[in-house]
Design brief:
Helix content is about 0%, strand content about 40%. The chain is an all-beta fold and about 550 residues long.
């Protein structure tokens, strides 16, 4: 006689996968108990007996870890929910009254689910027989409670490997070091009665394997594939398994896996509010103006580069890499050059400087003993050496409105030189305090004072000449005559073309004219000595008066 109650079994997954080395399998078995009568069925216990061991027909080798529970879809009046648990003495799972020994009711048209959860599935594939032991009575024929149990056998399939593609994955990891020539290897397992092809993110498809000939035994195979071009960034590949045929709709299985490049490359750009380092956590934030560089604490960071080609830089200061290096500050007035950690003025070194102006206290050559120029309020001072010794200005030409100097000399130390006393200009020779010679094509002077005048060639005076000694007149030339004052000694002849006039005082003069051919004396004539007269000829013809 069959059991009064009807039994069905459902598993999750539908085919329990057998455990594999390194890949344990856990499943769930649901035993559905139904009352197909139009009357209630009374029962004392319902046992679920599972084969224990590691063989093909065994479900598990450790039933004690299985979680058992009962889930009725009804409520029996004044009856508790059945207890369903492992009975070690019986070696099976038993559903019964929680207080033991009582009877429970399964109303007509109702069902009870006995759940075995967390089953560690044993490792060999095969068919598993579950035995259901039921002690009950009642039903449509009002069968009395039996002394022994009814027995029902149910079957569960334990499959060694699923008959579908699975485990689509990278071989080792999902990172490819493309810069070092690395690539990814994608692997999966599946039956050989399917076609397999890979679809990349752009929709391009590559056929990897085709199905075995129809009628051949279906076997599980491992498959692998690598892209011709390694992924340069995060890339999702789709494994499609099915049958490819002309005009046939695409059907089958779809599995995806995602791989990444160790250093991603984006061909169309990257949009992100910020980028942060992995170790030191420096951060670049993209603002409306451009980019901001921050350090790990959120303050302004430092950009390190071999070269920067920019249209402009806005910064408060610029400094060398060392803390003691020189640095440049940019105040509102221009720029300041400092050195060291304090605000000590620094030095600008350049091959050439093209500026509209330079404001500086002094300028010096590169060496400490070089010449240097100071810029006081009055103009500029040229020094040489570390002290304030006057230096020399060397130039091919100087165009100035005026020169204030103590003296001027030629390039050699033995050359002539000119000094400038308060009285005017003095010319010296041979680098000594000896009077020198002033040579010029013409000299236009209002006054000439000299100790000794030498004329080589003709001496021409236009408009008259006046000679004096210590304020006393000696010699005067006029357009029509020459006037002598004082004593004149002529060692050679003096020729007068038209005449000679000698004035002694306002009242007397002596003159000789060409017209009178004689000597005229106006006033008294006094002779201290002898007056002689000759009529011409030799001296013996002279008569003494």
């Amino acid at each position: 006689m069959p059991s009064l109650l009807h039994y069905a079994v459902v598993t999750d997954p539908t085919s329990l996968p057998a455990s594999q080395p390194g890949a344990p399998s856990v499943g769930t078995v649901y035993v559905i108990v139904s009352n197909t009568h139009q009357s209630d069925v009374k029962w004392e216990y319902i046992d679920v007996e599972i084969p224990v061991g590691t063989g093909p027909s065994d479900l598990t080798d450790d039933p004690t870890v299985i979680r058992a529970s009962a889930d009725p879809d009804y409520t029996a009046w004044l009856e508790p929910v059945p207890d369903f648990s492992w009975d070690a003495g019986l070696g099976r799972f038993r559903a019964h009254h929680p207080q033991g020994g009582g009877r429970l009711t399964l109303p007509y048209d109702q069902s009870l689910v006995l759940k075995l959860d967390g089953i560690p599935v044993s490792g060999t594939e095969g068919l598993i027989r579950l035995r259901i032991l039921e002690k009950s009575g009642g039903g449509d024929d009002n069968v009395p409670m039996r002394r022994d149990h009814f027995t029902t056998t149910l079957g569960v399939v334990k499959q060694a490997a699923p008959r579908i593609p699975r485990n689509f994955r990278p071989e080792k990891n999902s990172l490819a070091d493309v810069d070092a020539g690395g690539n990814v290897v994608l692997k999966w397992d599946g039956p050989d009665n399917l076609d397999y092809w890979i679809r990349d993110p752009e929709g391009n498809e590559t056929v990897v394997a085709t199905a075995a000939a129809p009628g051949s035994p279906v076997t599980q195979q491992p498959y692998m594939w690598s892209p011709i071009v390694p992924p340069k960034r995060g890339t999702t590949y789709t494994l499609v398994a099915g049958v490819r045929g002309t005009g046939q709709p695409e059907q089958g299985y779809f599995l995806t896996t995602t791989v990444h490049a160790l250093v991603p490359e984006f061909g169309s750009g990257t949009r992100t509010p910020w980028v942060e380092g992995t170790v030191d956590q420096g951060r670049v934030t993209f603002s409306a103006d451009g980019a901001e560089v921050r350090n790990g604490s959120g303050g302004w960071g430092t950009v390190h580069a071999d070269k920067a080609d920019v249209d402009g830089v806005r910064t408060e200061w610029v400094r060398g890499r060392g803390d003691d290096d020189g640095w440049i500050e940019f105040p509102g007035t221009g720029l300041n050059v400092f050195h060291g950690q304090q605000k000590e003025w620094g030095t600008v070194h350049a091959d050439k400087a093209d500026v509209n102006g330079v404001n500086t206290k002094w300028v010096q050559g590169r060496g400490d003993d070089d010449g240097w120029i100071e810029f006081p309020d009055t103009g500029l001072n040229v020094f040489h050496g570390p002290g304030r010794d006057w230096g020399n200005v060397h130039a091919d030409k100087a165009d100035v409105n005026g020169v204030n100097t103590k003296w001027v000399q030629g390039r050699g130390t033995g050359d002539g030189w000119i000094d400038f006393p308060k009285s005017g200009v003095r010319v010296f020779a041979d680098g000594q305090n000896e009077w020198g010679t002033l040579k010029a094509g013409k000299a236009d002077l209002d006054d000439l004072i000299t100790g000794e005048g030498k004329v080589r060639g003709h001496f021409v005076v236009e408009g008259g000449m006046k000679l004096s000694h210590e304020g006393q007149p000696l010699f005067l030339t006029l357009p029509d005559r020459i006037v002598f004052q004082g004593t004149n000694n002529f060692e050679k002849w003096v020729t007068f073309a038209d005449g000679l006039e000698v004035t002694y005082s306002k009242t007397g003069s002596v003159w000789i004219s060409k017209a009178s051919k004689g000597l005229s004396v106006h006033g008294d004539l006094q002779v201290d000595g002898v007056i002689s007269v000759t009529t011409g000829g030799d001296a013996p013809q002279v008569r003494t008066l």
